[in-house]
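#struct-pred

JT: dropping the chains for the assembly here, can someone run the whole complex?
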Amino acid sequence: MSIDHQIMWNRLIAVVEEQATTLIRTAFSTSVREAGDLSAGLFDRQARMIAQAVTGTPGHVNAMAESVGHFAREIGAQEIFEGDVYVTNDPWMGTGHLHDITMVTPVFRRGVHIGFFACTAHVVDIGGRGFGPDAGEVFEEGLLIPIAKFAERGRVDPLLIRLIRANVRTPDQTVGDMYSLAACNEAGNRRLQAMLDEFGVDDIDALADFIIDASGRATRAAIARVPDGTYLNEMRVDGYDAPVDMRVRLEVAGERLVCDFAGTSGESTKGVNVPEVYTRAYACYGLKVAIAPEVPNNAGSLAPFEITAPEGCILAARRPAPVSVRHVLGHLVPDVVLGALHQAMPGVVPAEGASSLWNIQISARASDPGSRLPPAEILMFNSGGTGARPGLDGLSATAFPSGVSTMSVEATEHVGPITVWRKELRQGSGGAGRTRGGLGQVIEIEPRAGYDFWFNAMFDRVENPRGDATAGAMARRGGWNWRTGRRSGRRGGSASRRGSG
Amino acid sequence: VPPGAGVGSAIGFLRAPFSYEATRGLFQRLDAFDAGAVNAALAQMREEAAAFVARGAGERATEVRLTAFMRYSGQGWEIGVPLEWRAFAEADVPAIRAAFEAAYAGLFGRVVERLAVEITNWSLVVATQAPEVARVAVRAGGADAPVVRVRGFFDAALRREVSARRCGGRRSCPGWRWTGPAVIVEDETSTVVTSAFRAVAQEDGAILILRKEAGA
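RK: done, full complex below.
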């Protein structure tokens, strides 16, 4: 009955939100517990996502939505037992790079397998060269855990844990986060079981059909409201060692929307490549927030967006291309897609913004190895400004499209021996215009006494900060410069008005 | 449904024990547990809380509840772990860890092996003891309660509007009985009894609601 289904649907959103909160409460990495770089969701037994926690980041959510199908296939129905927990960080099966660990727990009800809980989190270290773009192949980027059983019938695999502990710089944190991922699925399962008790049902098949049908219908109706046509856009960004051209072609015909990245630059030799699953995740996010923002995110609302990138381009990199910092270009995908959509729906989409998270992975080491000061890995997420909006300025130092929070300075300083001397908005960095871009920020970081640090810089829009060349205002450059003595990284928000200014 | 359920928080406030919670940030890793420092802090907290409670409660008997906020080293959030309040010794560390792991497993399903555990904050509550509750015999039923008028409500289980007896007055009399669908209207509280239930007023003013097929 549809009222019951609607009530249960709302309840499921609360269930997966509790799942995400458990992950935050038990996580070891600041990227999860402070920034919310995670996703959590419930899937039916056909591996279709039916509910997703609002807390989370699109690259995880929409990629995880595909990944559960890989788990179901690779593990196989005969090998799925109550008490199992599965794991992978395969960039092409999970969420695009080795640092993201996805864990899947099958849901059983009276001995029958009825669905899956899944969640993803970014861990601080996964071995290899560390989080950065400099590897030539994925093998250098760290430990790849193929789809495997983290636990079978409730028993954690001790060999897997030893393998991971032996291959990462932060064994306690990385393994601790895997436990917290398993705990978060467990918390979701408990709430789901209570809900099924209350409503006196033993499976979620009818509910899943209801959710997916309703969401699919609403999404297709929203696409039908977009004027038919073919819309093109391209955007040049820095890439690693050569500029990257991202090209998109949107075709809208009735309820159908096809988004194709043909013509985009080829793979890079370095780790800025993007597995196609991650490109699809962000392209879909960009389209959905503009076209059907009110429809809950699930398999039904994701399916109507047909997104493809030619294999071998930088947005559909092939194994074993390096992909560690796939988010840098991935976060720019919505900008290029929204630029095309702007032609169909003027006055809706924001201008291009800083978009890519300004991530900095700091490795702090004792200046004198004899001092025995412990090493530390510190990951900080920061953001420039978002693009100007049609009727409002952009948001300053705000992560769009990734939607993760900035970690507090205190939490970051607690993790490692660094001092953040400055973290302040960069005045004037939003550019000029009727509405302006959000402000970027200036951050100044120093190692504490007894330590040196090195870091991997993962920034874009330094050389190619501009948005649309036809816009009157030119954005300021994002960038970073160096001074001797105190080290400082700088980043501006880059934004300009798009279109009718 | 207790008497005055509609204003339950006000009544609860008036009947709550006198209590005071003293809190203190005192970081302790269990592998470097300083029992002396902890005991000194807890003694101060006990004194602070007891002095405050004594001003309201006089000589009434009190109890002490101790909670340690604990986490695995490296986590950012703690969980509350109830501990027995007493003077600690270094030898108590395994028991404290066991209490943490029991609480952690209860919340999150499984513990993390081999990780260091730490305490960040302490909470110590001194409270007067709640009086013993006088037990009354359950009444299974009596006379049907007088009907004031008939009104309708939507019975979610039946998915239709039902016609219900509206009964009430200032207070229900012990032994009065209602068979759902019914609405019991008292001064501060309206109790809706859906079609699947019946209700009986008890000696202490509470209303006991039972499934129709269940015995009392």
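JT: nice. The first strand of chain A starts at residue 38 and ends at 44. Chain A touches chain B at residues 1, 3, 22, 24-28, 30, 33-34, 156, 161, 172-173, 175-176, 179-180, 182-183, 186-187, 411 (CB under 8 Å).
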